[in-house]
Amino acid sequence: MVHAFFIGRALAEATSEQAERLMTDALSQLGQFDAEQRERLRQFTEDVMARAQAAEAAVVQNPDGSTGSAMGNDQDLQATIDNLRAEIAQVRVALQQYRAS
User: Can you give 29-43 as a three-state secondary structure string?
Assistant: First the structure.
């Protein structure tokens, strides 16, 4: 009877140590995963911001390389929008004719 008590006690201690080790490893891996994800998010954010700044700089610069207002680009953009609207209207007319036939 005494022998069974000590076996049970040893089993409980070993099981407790094993559970503690597994829990520590799991929390360590979770912390490592969290740190890696935060680093990836930080790098992604920096990449997006760098791309946005590069695109903004390309739009703001004049052809001679100096920075300034993008007013000339606004007129070109408006002309492009007008052309696209005209093309869309032509496609709609062609689609209606196709559906009618």
Answer: HHHHHHHHHHHHHHH
Looking at the DSSP bridge assignments, the partners of residue 61 are: 67
Q: What is the pLDDT of residues 47-62, one digit of tens each?
A: 999 998 888 888 877 5
Please state, in angstroms and rounded to a whole number, the distance separating the CA atoms of residues 54 and 59. 9
- Residue 97 vs residues 45, 86, 89: alpha-carbon distances, Å: 48, 17, 12
Contact 72, 65 (CB under 8 A): no
The two structure tokens encoding residue 70: 């993008």
* SS3 labels along 49-92: HHHHHHHHHHHHECCCCCECCCHHHHHHHHHHHHHHHHHHHHHH
Q: For the chain, what are the domain ranges?
A: 1-68, 69-101
pLDDT, tens digit, 9 for 90 and up, residues 4-45 = 999 999 999 999 999 999 999 999 999 999 999 999 999 999
